[in-house]
Amino acid sequence: xxxxxxxxxxxxxxxxxxxxxxxxxxxxxxxxxxxxxxxxxxxxxxxxxxxxxxxxxxxxxxxxxxxxxxxxxxxxxxxxxxxxxxxxxxxxxxxxxxxxxxxxxxxxxxxxxxxxxxxxxxxxxxxxxxxxxxxxxxxxxxxxxxxxxxxxxxxxxxxxxxxxxxxxxxxxxxxxxxxxxxxxxxxxxxxxxxxxxxxxxxxxxxxxxxxxxxxxxxxxxxxxxxxxxxxxxxxxxxxxxxxxxxxxxxxxxxxxxxxxxxxxxxxxxxxxxxxxxxxxxxxxxxxxxxxxxxxxxxxxxxxxxxxxxxxxxxxx
Length: 316
Description:
By secondary structure, the chain is of the alpha/beta class. The chain contains 13 helices and nine strands.
């Protein structure tokens, strides 16, 4: 361990590689300024937080002028990624990549190669300047969409079909054995199974969602680029709507909606719902990739969409 910036930098081999994991915005700039006096030409500063890509564009150029190399890297995976390996999306000064590649690919999640061996790292160079943070931003926007779609499937099962938490848990667990197999569908089944004092915990969780900003940034960027991002945009607005709890409670005391009644084939409806969820997820990904494609033109990035898809196969 180190008890100061000076002792940290002094303990590193050249070229030094210093990775920041701090709140986005001014704290990143503040730490960069603390580091600069102690670094030498060719040393590398890495920002692993959820920074805005415009900030990473600026920092890459700023540090290059000072003879230093900058990497802005998206890291996805949460607690499980920290334990088992995350998906890592680096961008910035390309000449820094060779120095961090074995480290990043070593700690990243691994997925199966052609022989079924878990050797393919969920990490590759994304592009210049803020490309890494841009791709992570879109990744999070797609994740916002995924979560909203799962919520809407849940609410149809609960309020239209009148299903219990146990019944919905079984459906999501079955769906996780199909094309919908994913971390989010898996943990949805897990949370629906969780009981507290004999009652499904999900019914006790406050129905207000927060957000760190990456989904909103994705929507704002799509507006700037003129790309229709309808699904992810609606997912962001759904979070905003959930946050105005007091207004919703007040409105519900004045306005009541119809009570839906389902009379069809329940099993057939659930299968249609599964297929609708799959189709909607494809729309979410397609719109996210459309944003990346336009951004590549706008910012002169050479984004490899296939490689980005491979990076998202594990860890995140």
